[in-house]
Specification:
By secondary structure, the protein is α+β, with helices and mostly antiparallel strands. The chain is about 35% helix and about 30% strand. The protein has five helices and eleven strands, in the order H-H-E-E-E-E-H-E-E-E-E-E-H-E-H-E. Strands 2, 3, 4, 5, 6, 7, 8 and 9 form an eight-stranded antiparallel beta sheet that branches.
């Protein structure tokens, strides 16, 4: 009697497994999925940018005039976190680039957003401002220190792409941003 019960248990498990595999295969076949679609979604950062421009203690930078092949993917502004602005992009080669700004301690902030990159070489002039290059194991960066704020362009993109992104950065004075919410702010080079 015990031998017959054991055979039924194994047979029942195999039948149950067959039913589960058949159901999973049916779901996979009939549920639409398109692997060609890009999983990274483009974000609209205009509201967050306007908020940061009104609240930040420094001119907030965002790129203007980049081709559509540059895709904005992440945005945040945190006044309670050292007045921190972040805007992340994917460049045309699907490499990450971001502008990070803050009034935090510059050394701590730079180390954090560049993932411990270190100064590398002489400063480079972009739009009349001196950006210090940084090199890291994961991210490279360009750093601009002005007044009480630090602006960092960082990411896994090539140095040429980091420079192109930094060159596209524009800022708006808080007075310009509050004058007319529907008007285009007048940019000035970052």
């Amino acid at each position: 009697m015990a031998g017959k019960s054991g055979k039924q248990t194994v047979r029942d498990m195999i039948l149950s497994l067959g039913v589960i595999v058949a159901i999973a295969a049916g779901i996979w076949i009939f549920v639409p999925h398109d692997d060609s679609k890009d999983p990274v979604k483009r974000v609209d950062y205009r509201v967050e940018l306007a908020t940061a421009q009104r609240a930040a203690a420094y001119p907030v930078a965002a790129p203007e005039g980049l081709p559509k092949t540059w895709k904005p993917t992440s945005v945040r502004y945190r006044a309670e976190d050292g007045d921190a602005w972040h805007l992340g992009y994917l460049d045309p080669h699907e490499k990450y680039v971001a502008v990070e700004q803050s009034t935090k301690d510059p050394a701590e902030f730079i180390e954090s957003v560049t993932q411990e990159a270190r100064k590398a070489g002489a400063a480079t002039s972009i739009n009349g401002r001196e950006w210090q290059p940084y090199k890291g194991d994961r991210y490279d960066a360009l750093v601009l220190r002005e007044g009480k704020s630090t602006t960092v362009v960082t990411g896994s993109a090539s140095p040429a792409q980091l420079k192109a992104f930094a060159a596209a950065l524009r800022t708006t004075d808080a007075a310009d941003a509050t004058t007319s919410a529907s008007a285009e702010p007048s940019p000035r080079a970052a």
